[in-house]
Amino acid sequence: MPASPHTVLFVDDDTDDRELISNIIYEIDPSIKVVQAENGIEAIDYLSQAKTTADFPCLVILDLNMPKMDGRKTLVEIKKDEQLKAIPIVILSTSGNSVDKLFCTHHGVELVTKPSDHLAIHNEVKKLLRFCIDA
User: Fold this and answer.
1) What contacts 71, CB < 8 A, 6 or more positions away?
2) Number of domains comprising the chain
3) pTM of the model as a whole
């Protein structure tokens, strides 16, 4: 029986970014399922449901600036949950702000600034998917 595909949770309020990153992930590895959330509330809801089945994503890609619940609050919520805190999280944001970098460092997550061209985005996403290898 083949292994079930890995899942990436991608949380971003920008529909175009969600579609672009999802498509790039599919191009890189069609076996990876991408679950999209528009904000932190949707992400926490998804992760809460995952706790009931122990079917956690191999990676959470999280934007910082979102309505309802931003990426900072979402990250803090995930990190304080014993069942969720081991899930790899990468912040993918347009922010290069030193305060945001410090926040990410403090919480042990990588901050990747969204590249502006398709090839650079593709290369960054490929690097991020290293968290899903042998997960």
Assistant:
1) 11, 40, 62, 63, 64, 65, 91, 93
2) 1
3) 0.89
